[in-house]
Amino acid sequence: MYVLGIETSCDETAASVVYKGRKICSHIIASSIKLHAKYGGVIPEIASRAQLEYINFVVDRAIKKSGVKIGDLDLIAVTKGPGLIGSLLVGISFAKALSFANKIPIIGVDHVQSHIYAPFLSSNGHKQSPKFPFVGLIVSGGHTSLYYFKNFDKFEVLGETLDDAAGEAFDKVAKLLRLGYPGGPLVEKIAQGGNHKAYNFGCSNNGNLNFSFSGVKTAVLYKIRDIERIGMLSRKQASDLAASFQQSVVASLVDKAITAALRKKAKDLVVGGGVAANKYFRAQLRKQAENKGIKVFIAENRLCTDNASMVAGLGYQLYRLGKRDNLNFKPILY
């Protein structure tokens, strides 16, 4: 079964063809990130205009590169939300038109949950997969959530962010340190030369599985102000600030993810989302999970950020479980 995935929830325009929910036959992404860089964040109108320009080319390229024809497609899976309304409408409208014109079934997929599917995918379709039930951690620019999955369509939310998502906090701290945008990779890079014990930035520990990163971001802001009252922020101080901030956020993510797995007696921990590409986070999570007898499944780096392969993969599984959509479904914005 060949599934075409389409993803346009934010600034990427992505399309992919996936075979039987496992093998990536094509993986195409056009990003408008350079258009947003000077603003320090994504501008919705710019994103949706770029997607209108890119989507026909991206989908056509994904189908051609996969080696199949449009008539060979068995299903179209498209991100239905959450995301930017203009961006979502571009992808959904295109997918619906393609579905109608070619009489191909269509299914809407939750963007956040699709991140959890990324570790199931590979280029050859042969990869060890997590086993149900498992705990899933989505850690991205817009979302930081913990789930308990009994199946792809049966899950419960264990915890979520109460304010800033982890990736959002990385971007904001990068802006405070004048590093540029997107901030996550830049903070990670400068943190490599820093001392993570230089400053004590503790994330709020509310005793449950919810996350809060607004406080640590504000603590970095106040520390920068204190330093700049005396003089300019040095490169070494910036590195130490980045390292200390990163350590605090990672410690919170790792602690709560492992706590969730232990509470649910889950042997597998599945992680997806842009922040999952952070090497320090990956190393700390694997190390501490291994000590507790928990196996970690993290998406390949190229599948951590928004992409259509994860949408196609999850769409396949939901369709196989009996989920169906018609051309009347609407975007979700929660």
CATH topology of the largest domain: Nucleotidyltransferase, domain 5
Helix-strand string: EEEHHEHEHEEEHHHHEHEHH
- The CATH superfamily of the largest domain is ATPase, nucleotide binding domain
> Largest beta sheet, briefly?
5 strands, mixed
Query: What's the quaternary structure here?
Result: single chain
Strand content: 15-25%
Question: In a nutshell, what does this entry contain?
Answer:
The chain has eleven helices and ten strands.
Structural account:
The chain has 2 domains: 2-121 and 303-320, ATPase, nucleotide binding domain (Nucleotidyltransferase, domain 5, 2-Layer Sandwich); 134-298, ATPase, nucleotide binding domain (Nucleotidyltransferase, domain 5, 2-Layer Sandwich), CATH 3.30.420. Helix content is 44%, strand content 19%. It is built from 11 helices and 10 strands. The strands form 2 sheets. The chain has a 5-stranded mixed sheet, sandwiched between helices. It has a 5-stranded mixed sheet with strand order 8-7-6-9-10. The radius of gyration is 20 Å and the shape is globular. The model has no long low-confidence stretch (mean pLDDT 94).
